[in-house]
Design a protein that fits this description.
Order of helices and strands: HHHHEEEE
Number of domains: 1
Structural class: alpha+beta
Distance between the termini: 58 Å
Strand order of the largest sheet: 1-4
Largest sheet: 2 strands, antiparallel
Length: 126
């Protein structure tokens, strides 16, 4: 018997909409507005990586480009009942004039996060 395979391609907008669908109520509650009033930004560095660093406070971490996010984020929160997924790997951090050190590299994965940014009047409880 021959098997058939279907491949369906989604636009980025459709993919994002499918991803956030289960969290729309939480997003609207956190923002105090409807999801249709939101804006999705794409940036090369992930703000969740800065939050992940908070979860591993005291660990030897490879500090990627999270300083700009750290300066902006005043609070963050996860949807209730959801555990974040963080990719953890060893890295060698090199600094001029010093021996390389082994550190953890963190990458936020597939979990929505609500951020309060400096100067915003968001509704986060933190």
């Amino acid at each position: 018997m021959a098997e058939s395979v279907q491949v369906r391609l989604m636009s980025t907008v459709q993919s994002i909409a499918a991803y956030v669908q289960p969290y729309i109520g939480w997003i609207e509650q956190k923002l105090g507005t409807s999801y249709s009033n939101t804006l999705t930004l794409e940036k090369s560095t992930a703000p969740g990586d800065a939050a992940a660093e908070d979860l591993f406070a005291g660990a030897s971490l490879y500090r990627r480009d999270t300083a700009s996010w750290r300066a902006l984020i005043t609070a963050w929160e996860l949807p209730p009942g959801l555990s974040p997924r963080i990719q953890l790997s060893h890295s060698r951090e090199r600094q001029p004039g010093k021996a390389p050190i082994t550190a953890w590299s963190l990458h936020w994965q597939e979990c929505p996060i609500a951020l309060r940014l400096e100067g915003s009047s968001g509704r986060l409880s933190k």
